[in-house]
């Protein structure tokens, strides 16, 4: 019973935590865009060039996917932060760039790795992903 109370407390803390910071927005973007293939959810976290890229992708996907339909079978995708660059060393930073390494495991034994760069910026008091790229 104590475990249930601890779990409920932890979930409440996480639900109430402030997600308006560059790292949380970056990780939420990775989760929605790469792990869930949910471009609409990723779009809500985006601004500028990132939003334009997602809107173009959503338009192209309309031919093969109904609005709100998620991908049925996704490969297993894990991410690991490998770097962070900030526009300044003060708390009033305006831009933060994150580097991640994605590991993509398809059915069977096929594994691919990709490097992802997420550029976040404070826009009207909210942290947003303003660009993303992979190589």
Output the strand order for the largest sheet.
1-2-3-4
Radius of gyration: 17 Å
How many DSSP-defined strands?
Answer: 4
Average pLDDT across residues?
85
Order of helices and strands: HHHHEEEE
Gap between N and C termini, in Å? 47 Å
Task: Specify the number of helices.
Answer: 4
Identify low-pLDDT runs.
none
Number of domains: 1
CATH class: Alpha Beta
The CATH architecture assignment turns out to be Roll
Outline: globular
Beta-strand residue fraction: 25-35%
Helix content: 25-40%
- Given helix and strand content, the structural type is alpha+beta
Most strands sheet: 4 strands, antiparallel
CATH topology: Nuclear Transport Factor 2, Chain: A
Describe this structure in words.
The protein contains 4 helices and 4 strands; from the N terminus they run ααααββββ. With 135 residues, it is of the alpha+beta class. It has a single domain, classed as Roll (Nuclear Transport Factor 2, Chain: A), CATH 3.10.450. Strands 1-2-3-4 form a 4-stranded antiparallel β-sheet. Strand 3 and strand 4 form a beta hairpin. The longest helix has 15 residues. It is globular. The N and C termini lie far apart (47 Å). The model has no long low-confidence stretch (mean pLDDT 85).
